[in-house]
Each structure stands twice: as structure tokens, then as C-alpha cells.
């Protein structure tokens, strides 16, 4: 499946799913799975808490509603990617994840630099 086709499916699905969100406790629905408002707010709160340990004065970071919308889009994208991977029978082993984690640490200069990268 081409990247353009996957992106097209993602954009259409995102628009339909966000428009179809009818329950007040749900921030969005992806397939049949709800993304609960509490889950979204908890994750946004975690992001904001993680920022407190990092000097962000020189960073142009999203806050408020922009951060919440951006993080919701991130969650939706991850759910859609998970569904596509499941449909295509793409599996990632723990060894693959570990190798990728180590590669990321090498690229950012070590695990200690991770907090400043993630904010």
C-alpha cells in the first residue's frame, strides 16, 4: 500500500471519526474504540508535568487547546496505524522495539537527553 493511499485513508478516517463523535465522555472514536476525555486529559497533564523538568524557555511549544488537539490527533494517528498494521499483519517483536530504542538513544546522545527531546 502506498504512502499516499495510507495518508488519504488516514485523513478521511480522521475527519469521519471526529465528526462522528457523539458521546460527551469521548474525545473521539476510532473504529469502535472510544478515546475517553479522561485519557486525553491525563496524557496532556503528563506532557505538561514532564515539561516542568526541562528548560523550555527557548522552545515554541503548544499549550492549552492547541496541545490537546495536537495530542488527540497523535492518539488517533497511532490507533489508525495500529489498525492498518493489524490488517496488513505487520508484527513488531520486543527485540525490534529494543533495537529501535537503542538506536534512538544513540541518535540523541544518550538516554539522559530523552526528556528534552520529548517535550
Q: What percentage of amino acids are in beta strands?
A: 5-15%
Q: Tell how many strands the DSSP assignment holds.
A: 2
Shape estimate: globular
- Please provide the ordered H/E string of secondary-structure elements: HEEHHHH
Number of domains: 2
Give unreliable regions as ranges: none
* Class by alpha and beta content: mainly alpha
Calculate Rg over CA atoms: 17 Å
| Helical run tally | 5
Measured as a percent range, the helix fraction is 55-70%
Can you summarize the main beta sheet? 2 strands, antiparallel
What is the terminal separation in angstroms? 32 Å
What's the overall average pLDDT, rounded? Answer: 87
Description:
This protein has 119 residues and is mostly helical. The chain folds into two domains: 3-88, no CATH class; 93-119, no CATH class. Helices cover 64% and strands 8% of the residues. The chain contains five helices and two strands. It has helices at residues 3-19, 37-51, 64-87, 94-108, 114-118; strands at residues 26-30, 33-36. Strands 1-2 form a two-stranded antiparallel sheet. Strand 1 and strand 2 (33-36) form a beta hairpin. Helix 2 crosses helix 3 (64-87). The longest helix has 24 residues, at 64-87.
How is the secondary structure organized here?
Layout: H1 3-19, E1 26-30, E2 33-36, H2 37-51, H3 64-87, H4 94-108, H5 114-118
Antiparallel strand pairs: 1-2
Helix pairs in contact: 2-3
Amino acid at each position: 500500500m502506498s504512502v499516499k493511499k495510507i495518508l488519504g485513508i488516514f485523513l478521511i478516517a480522521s475527519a469521519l471519526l471526529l465528526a462522528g463523535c457523539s458521546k460527551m465522555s469521548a474525545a473521539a472514536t476510532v473504529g469502535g474504540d472510544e478515546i475517553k476525555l479522561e485519557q486525553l486529559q491525563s496524557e496532556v497533564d503528563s506532557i505538561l508535568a514532564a515539561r516542568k523538568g526541562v528548560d523550555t524557555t527557548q522552545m515554541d511549544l503548544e499549550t492549552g487547546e492547541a496541545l490537546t488537539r495536537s495530542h488527540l490527533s497523535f492518539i488517533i494517528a497511532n490507533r489508525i496505524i495500529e489498525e492498518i498494521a493489524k490488517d496488513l499483519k505487520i508484527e513488531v517483536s520486543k527485540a525490534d522495539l529494543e533495537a529501535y530504542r537503542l538506536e534512538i538513544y544513540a541518535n540523541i546522545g544518550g538516554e539522559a537527553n530523552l526528556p528534552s527531546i520529548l517535550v
